[in-house]
Structures are given as C-alpha cells and as structure tokens.
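Thread: "does anyone have the structure for this chain?"

Original post by V.I.:
We have the sequence but no experimental structure in hand. Need at least a predicted one for the grant figures.
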Amino acid sequence: MRSFGLVETFAIRSFIAVALMASGLAWAVMLSVERVAVEQAAETGRLTAEMVIAHHLEDRDLTDPLSSDSVDMIDEYIVQDLLETDIIAVKLWNTDRELVYSSNAEDEIGTSYNDSSNVSSALEGVVVANIDRESHPESTNQYAEYGDLIEVYAPLLGADGETLGVFEIYVPYAIISPRVRDANLLILGIIVAGSLIVYFTQIRMMQNAARKLKDTEALVSTVNDRLQGSLRSIEEGSLGTLQALISAVDAKDSYTARHSLGVTDYAVAIGRRMGLPHEEIIDLERASLLHDIGKIGVPESVLLKPTKLTTEDRRTIEEHSEMGAHIIESIPFLAGLVPIVRHHHERWDGSGYPAGLRGKEAPLMARILSVADAFDAMTSNRPYRSALNVSTARAELLRFRGIQFDPAVVDALSEALDLGEVSASRQYDFMSRAVTTGSA
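Reply from O.Q.:
Generated one for you, tokens below.
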C-alpha cells in the first residue's frame, strides 16, 4: 500500500508541476505572439510615416498651426492611402508636443500633452508601439469608439535627418485579436498535448518503479524472515558461524586466513600475560580470528597485489576494519567484538584509523590485537617481501613502542616470547583452532 500511496502523491505533485509549467509557458508564448503583432503594426506605422506623410511635410513648419491647404493636403493623402486600410486615425505632433493635426474632427488641435512619454520617446527617434487597454487623454475619442487600441508613435524626419515632429496612428486591437487568438490556441494546444505526454510518461515510469519497489519489498521481507531464522541458528551454533566466516576469508585470500590464526596465537598469549579474565580471552580469540573479515570486500587486485600498494590501494585496504565491524555487528553473539575489530589499526600516538584514537582511548583488546597483527605480519612472507626474523621484528616493535604500539602490550609480547608461551614457528590447523575457539 505504501508504494501505491507514493504513486498517487507523485501523480498529484507531477500534475501540479506540469500544469504550472504549461501555464507559464503558454502565458509567455501568448505574450510573445501579441508582441509580434504589435511590432508588425509598429513597422507599418514607421513605413507609413516615412513613405506617405514625411516627404509632404519636409518644407512645412509644424510649430505653428497648419494652414487649411496643408490640412486639406494631409487629409487627402490620409483618406486615400491610410484610412481605407486598418488604420482608423492619424495624428501629428510638433516638437513642442502639441497636437497640430488629427483625422478625427473631435480632437482639439493645439492641445499640449507634455506628460506623454510615448510622444517624448518618438521625438528622440524611437518608434513606440503598445496596446492601449484604457483611455488616455490623447486617445480619449478613439478609445471611446473602438475600445482597445494599438498605438504607434513614429518620428517624422526631414530630408537632412532633423526631427519635424511625431506621426501617430491607431489600429483597433480587434482587427488582430482573431489572428492572435488562433495562434495562441494552436500554441496552447501543442503545449497542452506535450505536457500531457510528459505527465503520463512520468506516471508510467513511476508506476513501473513502484511495482519494482513492491517486488523488492517482498523480496527484502522474505530475506529478512530467512535472516531472522539464520540468526537464531547462529546463536544456537556459534562454532559453525565462526568456521563459516573464517572459511570465507580463506577463500578470498589464504594468507589472510593463516595470518588471522597466527595473530590469534600472539593475541591470546599477550592477553594471558596481561591477566585478562577467561571471558575476555574468549572475546580476544574470536576477534583475532575475525579481525580481517572485512577484507572480503577488498578487490582481489588490491588484496593479492604482488607489488607494494599505492596510496589509493592503501585507502581501499584501510576500509576493511570498518567493513569487518559492519559484518559482525549484526550477529548478536559477536556484537561485543565490534569495537575490537573496528579499532585494531588505531595507533598509540593517534595517527591510526579509522577514528584516530590516541593512547587508551582505543579498547585494550584492540591495542593487543594491533601488536599481534603487526608482529605476525612482519614474521610472515608476503608477495612483495620475505618474512623478517623474530629478532628484527621484535626490534621494530620496540622502535615503535609508545609511538604506534601500547608500551605495556609490547612488553607483554616480549615476555611471552622469552618464556616460550608463544612461538614464531607455528603449524596452522584451521579446524582445530576454530573448534578450540568455539568450545572455549
């Protein structure tokens, strides 16, 4: 049910997002279409001003009221060439922003509109076109008769480029509104269709993902049920679990398995020399056997590399302590070993990993494991070097006593070696070691 609720939530949110996106896009496109229509009208007005009117006014002074002959001449050209088109009115303004001519007899000639920004812009040489959706003082009569208007203001330039005044035309918005509407409907249809395709594609993908999630949840539930049964079996048979885990390491790298057995010998000898109680010796022995279990997750190309490791290789190897801790922390009877496995590569001076613990901040058994691990590694053959002899390995431990290693642990191993409680020459027997640990 959870996955289906997720699909429904996604469907609602996706629909809202697609609807908002489509609305915003449609709004922007419709404004663009309308703007294009207005700009076409502006270009028409500019050409009209240049080709029909301007050259007839080159030698006329618009600062004074136009003579009746000039008015008749302009009327003749406007009636013949302009008013039979979509243009419904024409006005002329002089450079003082005074109305000197209007094809609409109701307009008051000589009226000044100093606050008209459109006229001012045109006097500066800019062609202005806009949609007038409300009445303004200079267009009251035209708006009252036709409603929304497209206004175009164009500069009138003389032969030498000087500004004679401003030429203004009006076109009813109703003339272009059908074209704008049709274009908008077509574009809106395309946007809606595309948005629906995107929406239903997303829903289909989400439904597929939800089905896979449901199948995965069922699989996980089955696995969890089996794991619960397995964990109960593990608690009842710890010996078999230890053998299986150590065998897994051996299958990955036989050196790692042999190394774990050698480390166990040294760690147990150190623990006994330091007087650890029997229960802690058991934990130390198990942790020693499992301390490198995390190397199961290390690529064999790094784990079995015959040459010295690179910096990147070392970073990969260093992940094994955390990985090992994660592997065993889910096993109830091994949970107490997690801190030992996680911190067996910490250093006395705090420069170790993974947490950089210093001195006694690391668990005692982790510090014991660190010394046993290093000593067995030094006295074992590796693919890239031969084993050190016992004397040299002991000298190395002493050299790093109080730097890398707990001094008390180093001393305890030295005593165990001197007293013959542990030997550097061992015959490894995996099964006998596992049995001993399980029965301890």
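V.I.: this helps a lot. The longest strand covers residues 163-172.
O.Q.: and Residues 2-180 form a domain with the Beta-Lactamase fold (CATH 3.30.450.20).
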